[in-house]
């Protein structure tokens, strides 16, 4: 009997097993899944976290099953989306506990559907070391692997020098410092008083919830406005970041026009021969693709807002480079309202050039900004934003073909497309009006001096003095600083290598590449810590999701290696 060991039992491992089962292999195979957390959900999606924490995806936009859009070699094996499985409102944003149950059910469904020649054993333990073809577990057990797959998910990293210094400062002066980590893992029990949060994305939203509603506060609606009623146990939260604004709200409407065929410009053929200079040579084509999705919806869904037929606009648009005076002239000619034109620079840095005489003036400005964002993302009149969002997803699905990976792009994508549900931003506004949350500004700086944490921004002259600092962001993983014991053991003997961004190098099929540039014959890796990183977001139905295609290729390669 052949042996397959999969280290990591989260959604990626479950999806890989589903694709192995879909191939109907005939060999006798023993599969061992190693994870200290429950299989299917894994660490990030485990049920044992606050019921207040929610997904930032609608229930109808989450599936673990292939459908008719899938163009991989393996067969389609359809199944229910999260909305269909959980019988929940398709447009709702379910709790992570609901998603955890869906993922656990999927893992059980996959293992139960395997043919009798394949067995699955789950080991509730942590893999501590890989030596040759043996995997050692912290339970004392050892597993022999004919093929090894590292499906490790999101990983922790050793602290960066700055974080170590901040932690030492906190210990020396009896302050609170929380380094970058997953919000559900954070010990927030000592957080009180005035606290700076560095980061304004989804990690901030989670921390905001845990430190307010999670401390006993509650919301009520009065006269159409949401109000926050403090419990008295909340800290005061001072939040800032590079942009100084929260991620954009998720849209709450459907397309009003015809659905575009995506990707239209950012295709595999168009990417051939382009240089690795991301901002100069790749980003302009991506920007044109996203703008295409935006304008396709504007012209087909809202013809009263434009000055020419879509066919005429599309012909000129297709012929012009995105960053050209002719393109700008076309936009002005065809689209009278500047609010309907897409401006990537303004979207990226909305506070650029803005300063305020007092912090209070800035609080009012940013509340107005967030209110306008929620209103726009809730009004079908601006459904062109949804067209841009769908184009963003199609671009992201092509990113595996663009090397090297670009950190700015991933952050920009998350900021535009992976923001919180609109009601979370309404809660942020309520917390701001209640004085529980204070906005610091753009390009926020933080210093550890005078027995405190100081924070400020060029946006206002005010300086915050706080007794706590929370890094409201995920750790940046790199192989050289990995906290994962398996990767450490492989790195110690040169069996793994990293690219310039610190990602674990893998081949197109997912095989580990060692320090000599050789592909490993029997070890694979998949996930966001690899150069084949794809696709942390869950698959949306009917989008030929990249993760499904990647799992399909990996499953075939594993079975080929095992000799089936």
UniProtKB/TrEMBL annotation:
InterPro entries: FAD/NAD-bd_sf (IPR036188), HpyO/CreE_NAD-binding (IPR038732), L-asp_N-monooxygenase_NS-form (IPR052189). Residues 5-154 form the FAD-dependent urate hydroxylase HpyO/Asp monooxygenase CreE-like FAD/NAD(P)-binding domain. Coiled coil: none annotated. Pfam families: NAD_binding_9. This is Adenylate cyclase. The lineage of its organism: Bacteria, Bacillati, Actinomycetota, Actinomycetes, Pseudonocardiales.
């Amino acid at each position: 009997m052949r042996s397959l060991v999969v280290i990591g039992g989260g959604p990626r491992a479950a999806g890989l097993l589903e694709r192995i089962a879909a191939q109907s292999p005939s060999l006798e195979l023993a599969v061992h899944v190693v994870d200290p957390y429950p299989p299917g959900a894994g660490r990030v999606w485990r049920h044992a976290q606050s019921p207040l924490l929610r997904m930032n995806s609608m229930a109808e936009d989450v599936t673990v099953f292939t459908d008719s859009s899938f163009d991989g070699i393996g067969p389609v094996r359809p199944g229910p989306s999260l909305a269909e499985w959980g019988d929940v409102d398709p447009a709702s944003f379910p709790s992570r506990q609901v998603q955890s149950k869906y993922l656990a059910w999927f893992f059980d469904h996959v293992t139960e559907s395997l043919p009798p020649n394949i067995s699955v054993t789950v080991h509730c333990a942590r893999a501590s070391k890989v030596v040759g073809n043996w995997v050692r577990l912290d339970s004392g057990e050892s597993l022999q692997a004919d093929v090894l797959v590292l499906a490790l998910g999101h990983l922790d990293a050793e602290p960066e020098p700055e974080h170590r210094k901040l932690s030492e400062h906190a210990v020396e002066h009896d302050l609170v410092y929380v380094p970058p980590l997953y919000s559900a893992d954070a010990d927030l029990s000592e957080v009180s008083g005035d606290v700076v949060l560095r980061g304004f994305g989804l990690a901030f939203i989670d921390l905001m919830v845990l430190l307010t509603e999670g401390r006993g506060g509650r919301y009520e609606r009065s006269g159409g406005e949401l109000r926050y009623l403090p419990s008295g146990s909340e800290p005061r939260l001072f939040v800032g970041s590079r942009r100084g604004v929260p991620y954009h709200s998720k849209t709450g409407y459907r397309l009003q026009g015809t659905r575009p065929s995506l990707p239209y410009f950012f295709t595999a053929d168009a990417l051939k021969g382009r240089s690795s200079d991301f901002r100069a040579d790749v980003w302009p084509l991506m920007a044109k693709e996203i703008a295409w999705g935006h304008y396709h919806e504007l012209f087909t869904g809202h013809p009263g807002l434009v000055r020419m037929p879509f066919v005429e606009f599309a012909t000129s648009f297709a012929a012009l480079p995105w960053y050209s005076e002719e393109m700008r002239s076309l936009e002005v000619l065809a689209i009278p309202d500047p609010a309907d034109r897409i401006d990537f620079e303004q979207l990226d840095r909305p506070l650029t050039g803005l300063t305020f005489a007092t912090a209070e003036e800035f609080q009012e400005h940013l509340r107005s900004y967030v209110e306008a964002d929620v209103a726009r993302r809730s009004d079908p009149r601006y459904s062109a934003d949804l067209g841009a969002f769908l184009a963003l997803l199609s671009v992201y699905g092509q990113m595996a073909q663009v090397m090297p990976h670009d950190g700015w792009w991933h952050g920009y994508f998350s900021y535009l497309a992976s923001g919180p549900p609109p009601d979370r931003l309404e809660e942020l506004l309520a917390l701001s009006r209640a004085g529980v949350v204070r906005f610091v500004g753009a390009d926020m700086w933080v210093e550890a001096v005078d027995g405190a944490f100081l924070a400020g921004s060029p946006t206002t002259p005010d300086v915050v003095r706080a007794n706590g600092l929370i890094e409201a962001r995920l750790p940046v993983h790199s192989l050289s600083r990995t906290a994962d014991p398996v990767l450490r053991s492989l790195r110690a003997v040169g069996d793994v290598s990293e690219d310039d961004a610190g990602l674990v190098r893998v081949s197109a099929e997912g095989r580990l590449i060692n320090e000599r540039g050789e592909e490993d014959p029997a070890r694979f890796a998949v996930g966001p810590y690899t150069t084949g990183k794809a696709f942390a977001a869950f698959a949306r139905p009917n989008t030929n999701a990249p993760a499904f295609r990647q799992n399909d290729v990996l499953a075939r390669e594993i079975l080929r290696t095992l000799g089936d």
